[in-house]
Design a protein that fits this description.
By secondary structure, this protein is an alpha/beta fold. The chain has six helices and seven strands; from the N terminus they run ααβαβαββαβαββ. The protein has helices at residues 8-12, 31-38, 55-62, 74-87, 126-136, 166-174; strands at 46-49, 67-71, 92-96, 109-115, 137-148, 178-189, 211-221. Strands 3-2-1-4-5-7-6 form a seven-stranded mixed β-sheet. It is globular, with a radius of gyration of 16 Å. The N and C termini lie far apart (37 Å). Keywords: Methyltransferase, S-adenosyl-L-methionine, Transferase. It is an enzyme of class 2 (transferase). Its EC number is 2.1.-.-. It holds the Pfam family Methyltransf_31.
């Protein structure tokens, strides 16, 4: 199952072909992005693009940031809104929208964060996405993208996102943003379980038993 055919709302409702929670739903921010947060890399307001259950948004809001999360899945957005209410996080809000064509936030955000969204988009949706988040960004805004590298999944895998190589990533993002850096990184994922799950045994695991999948972390800015 590729990113082209994945039914994301089904995945968040537990009907996406996985046994257990979706592999990307690790219950906390991705460690690479949590490290950026600890280093003070984010500035309010923050756009969490493709927020899912929004653990990054919720963590930032708990630390005083104003955050808007956008996701295509109404199930994910409902869960994120409920979590924000339960935690008393008034500075986190969430909206269901197509991230490749959303409007209404022109020039608002000083930080845009993409936590494993880019590779989940159809390839022909990338430019619309990058154009849309650029429009929503304020001058000087920072853009962080955490995305699977091509080596993350075996070639024969049926459940395979639209992973990238470094040149492909740079070329796509630089059409709208000034790219500052691309470095190797990891995406941490729950074990892939289910009849169509790829064999991920070649990869290391972290101290919580999650798979560490090769990725890139791109940093860019808006002039």
């Amino acid at each position: 199952m590729s990113a082209e055919v994945m039914d994301w709302d089904n995945a968040y409702r537990g009907q996406g072909g996985f046994e257990g929670p979706p592999p990307w739903n690790i219950g906390e921010p991705q460690p690479e992005l949590a490290a950026l947060h600890r280093a003070g890399a984010f500035r309010s307001d923050v756009l969490d693009a493709g927020c899912g259950h929004a653990e990054l948004s919720l963590t930032l809001a708990a630390d005083g940031y104003t955050v808007v999360g956008i996701d295509l899945s109404p199930t994910a957005i409902a869960a994120a809104n409920q979590a924000a209410q339960l935690r008393g996080l008034a500075t986190a809000s969430f909206a269901q929208a197509d991230i490749t064509a959303f409007k209404g936030y022109d020039g608002r955000f000083n930080t845009v964060v993409d936590s494993t969204l880019f590779h989940s988009l159809p390839v022909d949706g990338r430019d619309g996405y990058l154009r849309s988040v650029h429009r929503a960004a304020a001058p000087g805004a920072r853009f962080y993208v955490l995305v699977f590298a091509e080596s993350a999944f075996p070639a024969e895998a049926e459940m395979k996102p639209n992973a990238v190589d470094e040149d492909e990533l740079r070329a796509a993002v630089s059409a709208h943003w000034e790219v500052d850096d691309v470095r190797p990184a990891f995406i941490h994922a729950n074990p892939f379980l289910g009849p169509d799950a790829p064999d991920m045994s070649a990869h290391d695991t972290d101290d919580k038993g999650r798979i560490k999948l090769p990725a890139y972390l791109l940093t860019a800015h808006k002039c």
